[in-house]
Amino acid sequence: MRVVIAGAGSVGRSIARELLAHDHEVTLIDRQPSAMRVAQVAEADWLLADACELPTLREVRADECDVMVAATGDDKANLVVSLLAKTEFGVPRTVARVNNPKNEWMFDDAWGVDVAVSTPRIMTAMVEEAVAVGDLVRIFTFHQSKADILELTLPEGSPLAGVRVGQVEWPADTVLACIVRDARPLAPSPDDTLEGRDELLFVTGHEADEQALERLLTRGPASS
User: Which residues form the RCK N-terminal domain (predicted)?
Assistant: First the structure.
C-alpha cells in the first residue's frame, strides 16, 4: 500500500513508522524545515513543501497513492489536503486529523474526508472508559457510515451477568462485537455467558437507541 502523509510532526512520524513496519510505502510532506527529521524515519520518502498546493501533491504522485493522511496540527490545512486528494487526484481513502473538537462537524465527505480522527475525543473516551463502570462510552465514530463503536463495562450487579449472549435481545442496529475479559478479547458466541466486569464492545448504526442499550445492560430487559 502506498501512503502519503501531510504533516511530519510527531503524529505524522509515528504513523509513518507504524506503516513502514508493516511494509507499506510512505511519503512524508511538511513545509517546515524544522520538521525534516529524516533520520528518525529514514525508510520514508521526504518532501519539504506545502501539501495544500497542487504542485506538491503532483510531485508525490498523489494520484497513485492508496491513502492520503492529513496529520498536520492545522485543521484548515487538513481539510484542504483531504479535499484536493479526493477531488483532484481521486485518492481512494483519506484520513484526517481533527485538532479542535469544535471543528469535527466539518470533517465529512463534503470536504473529501473518509475517516476523521479526533485525538482529543479519543483521549476523552479513554479517560471515561478507564473510570466508568455501567456507563456507555462512545469510543469512535465512522464518519462515512455513521456507525459507532461503543463500550460498557458490565456492572457486577447487572441482571445480564450470568446470562448467555444468545438469550439477550439487543436493541435494533446493535451488534455485540467483542467481550474483553481478564485482558483477553473474545469473539462472542450465543453460548458464551456474560460476566460482571466484562468489557463489552458494540458496533451500532446511526439510528441505534443508545439509551435503551445502556438500560438493558445495567437494569436488564424492560419486562423484568
Answer: 1-117
Partners of 193 in the β-ladder: 164
Contact 49, 56 (CB under 8 A): yes
Of the candidates 80, 58, 88, 63, the one whose C-alpha atom is nearest the C-alpha of residue 7 is 80
Q: Decide if 151 contacts 199 (C-beta within 8 A).
A: yes
CA distance 9 to 152: 34
Helical ranges in the chain per DSSP H: 10-21, 54-59, 75-89, 119-131, 210-219
CA terminus-to-terminus distance, the chain = 52
The pTM (predicted TM-score) of the whole model is: 0.63
Inter-residue contact 125 to 139 (CB < 8 Å): yes
Mean pLDDT of 3-10: 94
Q: What residue type is 78 in one-letter code?
A: N
User: Taking the C-alpha atoms of 117, 118, 120 and 126 in order, what is their torsion angle to the nearest 10 degrees?
Assistant: -50
pLDDT of 131 over the 60 cut: no
Dihedral sign, CA of 49, 52, 55, 57? Answer: positive
- 133: helix, strand or coil: coil
